[in-house]
Amino acid sequence: GGFYDAGYYFKDKTRITIIKDTKNWWAQAEGLNTLLLMADAYPKDSLQYFNLFQKQWQYIDKYIIDHEHGEWYMGGLDKAPDMKTAQKGQIWKASYHQFRALSNIVQRLRPDKTAPTVPRNFKSSVIKNTLVLTWDKATDNRNLVGYNLYQNGKRIGFTPRTSFAVPRVGQPKGNKYTLKAVDYQGNQSAVSNVVSI
């Protein structure tokens, strides 16, 4: 299992020639994510990407994840056993690749199809020539990320807070404001009540 660090296809050879047989942590993370994307896109492909995804996960679980102290080793212990005592974080290694890959995988394996609740108590006030819109926090079954704000049906902004300031300079009267809560998966709530200015 695992993806090798470097190899070439030469025109006079029928198989890939591996020139560096170590297995870097980030290539394993990105490969895992890619195999699941390919499995979703091509479920009937003869390469059986989902089976390869499972095999890749088994490799990562066995040779890349430090189950005792946490984090991922910089390389697979099958090819570089000295990685067991090497630093796990340095200028070229942080938790970016594995977090991104694993969060994408969780979303694909357990997709969130439930929208957040509608934000309630949507109202306005004016402070120093600025329209301030406020509302009660919505809830979500997983991860609420914030709110999309609309003016006359057109999206004018996003905020993770429960308030939003709209400068009134040059704003015509008769605007209608609404908002929708949005979660990490991109599900949006139904529209809030309308605030007319």
TrEMBL record:
Pfam families: GlcNAc_2-epim (PF07221). Transmembrane segments: none annotated. Keywords: Isomerase. It comes from uncultured Adhaeribacter sp. InterPro entries: 6-hairpin_glycosidase_sf, 6hp_glycosidase-like_sf, AGE/CE, Ig-like_fold. The lineage of its organism: Bacteria, Pseudomonadati, Bacteroidota, Cytophagia, Cytophagales. One of its GO terms (biological process) is carbohydrate metabolic process. Belongs to the N-acylglucosamine 2-epimerase family. This is GH119. GO terms for molecular function: isomerase activity.
